[in-house]
């Protein structure tokens, strides 16, 4: 594979988001946990999306190339903003820069499709054509770039500090990175939505006919849906640069675990086999196992408010101190003046 570009350095404070133990480029698991499975992924994490506890990981905050798991950030960003019933037209610019051999759902120029169909094509077939259309429509006047800008704004809101999108689809672009920890934050936002859960668990969907193309069906590429008990959905990714990437969520006995992995090789297990092994390891741990936690956007708002209140409190305190200090001085001066008067 081509050499990985050197990512921007991650500062110490960002490495500690979610807990000091997560600030490592190596393995972090609970002290009493069984050994984690041996995997080829260069970064991974298992987290409980319900409780927010991080059960273990390897280089959770290390920047890696995302490939198509980047599409989850697109969904987290634009699914709340776009009307699923809106019908949009595919333009030449949506398809012009896509390799016909890449992952496509099969859109045609001039075709008109409901937004909901595009979400299904994005999540079932990892359609890069769907990603471009959704980003353009969601980007408003700025078009596709506006959609990418919105993705980066959403990453900041979710406190996914190691994530930066350059393309909406996850096709390699300059300065495009994510981390295993960030992917768990993004997955948590996605799987909190009923519509997202419904889309990503769909087995088969129909794409409507167009004047120059008959209707056809697309099937879900996530083979784990029918192999892993409790599988809610997952997203694969691959480029020569990123290698294999994966995000998957499984729910059992009230626990909803997410596995996120980056930089995996196709052998011996591949990303899906490694995901299964890591999920089985996570479910075998006691529910209170933890090496850190997933932060929330609300915490950032709370800390900002606390800072503001503290700042106002300090300012008020300084004002009171100034009054206490200056008033007696004025009295003393007045008293002295009075004492010197005849």
What this model shows, in words?
- The protein has ten helices and eleven strands.
- Helix 2 crosses helix 7 (180-191) and helix 5 (128-138) crosses helix 6.
- Strands 1, 2, 3, 8, 9, 10 and 11 form a seven-stranded antiparallel β-sheet that branches. Strands 4-5 form a two-stranded antiparallel ribbon. Strands 6-7 form a two-stranded antiparallel ribbon.
- It has helices spanning 12-15, 71-78, 92-95, 115-124, 128-138, 143-158, 180-191, 194-200, 270-284, 297-340, and strands at 27-28, 43-48, 53-58, 87-89, 112-114, 204-207, 216-219, 231-239, 243-252, 255-264, 292-293.
- By secondary structure, the protein is α+β, with helices and mostly antiparallel strands.
- Strand 2 and strand 3 (53-58) form a beta hairpin.
- It folds into two domains: 12-295, DD-peptidase/beta-lactamase superfamily (Beta-lactamase, 3-Layer(aba) Sandwich); 296-342.
Oligomer: single chain
What is the CATH superfamily label of the largest domain?
A: DD-peptidase/beta-lactamase superfamily
Q: What is the strand tally?
A: 11
Return the CATH class of the largest domain: Alpha Beta
Radius of gyration: 26 Å
Spatial gap, N to C terminus = 98 Å
- Summarize the biggest pleated sheet: 7 strands, antiparallel
Uncertain stretches: 318-342
Q: Identify the CATH architecture of the largest domain.
A: 3-Layer(aba) Sandwich
- Total number of helical segments? 10
For the record, the count of structural domains works out to 2
As a percent range, the share of helical residues equals: 25-40%
State the shape: globular
The CATH topology of the largest domain is Beta-lactamase
Q: What percentage of amino acids are in beta strands?
A: 15-25%
One letter per element, helices H and strands E, the order comes to HEEEHEHEHHHHHEEEEEHEH
Mean pLDDT: 89
Please state the structural category: alpha+beta
């Amino acid at each position: 594979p081509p050499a990985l570009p050197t990512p921007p350095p991650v500062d110490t404070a960002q490495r500690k988001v979610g807990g000091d133990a997560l600030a490592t480029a190596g393995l972090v698991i609970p002290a009493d946990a069984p050994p984690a499975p041996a995997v080829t992924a260069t970064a991974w994490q298992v987290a409980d999306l319900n409780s927010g506890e991080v059960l273990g990981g390897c280089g959770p905050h290390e920047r890696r190339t995302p490939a198509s798991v980047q599409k989850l950030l697109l969904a987290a960003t634009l699914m709340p903003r776009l009307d699923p019933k809106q019908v949009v037209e595919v333009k030449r610019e949506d398809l012009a820069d896509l390799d016909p051999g890449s992952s496509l759902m099969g859109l045609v120029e001039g075709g008109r499709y409901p937004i909901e169909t595009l979400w299904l094509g994005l999540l079932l077939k990892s359609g890069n054509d769907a990603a471009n259309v959704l980003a353009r429509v969601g980007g408003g006047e700025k078009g596709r770039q506006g959609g990418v800008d919105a993705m980066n704004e959403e990453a900041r809101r979710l406190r996914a500090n190691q994530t930066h999108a350059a393309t909406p689809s996850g096709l390699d672009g300059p300065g495009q990175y994510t981390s295993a920890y960030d992917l768990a934050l993004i997955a948590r936002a996605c799987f909190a939505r009923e519509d997202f859960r419904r889309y990503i668990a769909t087995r088969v969907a129909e794409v409507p006919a167009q004047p120059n193309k008959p209707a056809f069906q697309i099937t879900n590429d996530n083979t784990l849906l029918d192999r892993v008990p409790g599988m809610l959905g997952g997203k694969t990714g691959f480029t020569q640069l990123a290698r294999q990437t994966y995000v998957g969520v499984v729910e059992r006995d009230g626990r909803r675990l997410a596995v996120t992995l980056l930089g995996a090789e196709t052998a011996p297990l591949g990303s899906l086999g490694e995901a299964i092994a890591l999920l089985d390891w996570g479910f075998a741990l006691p529910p209170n196992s933890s090496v850190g936690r997933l932060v929330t956007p609300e915490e950032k708002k709370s800390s900002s408010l606390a800072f503001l209140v503290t700042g106002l409190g300090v300012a008020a305190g300084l004002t009171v101190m100034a009054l206490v200090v200056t008033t007696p001085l004025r009295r003393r001066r007045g008293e002295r003046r009075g004492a010197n008067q005849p």
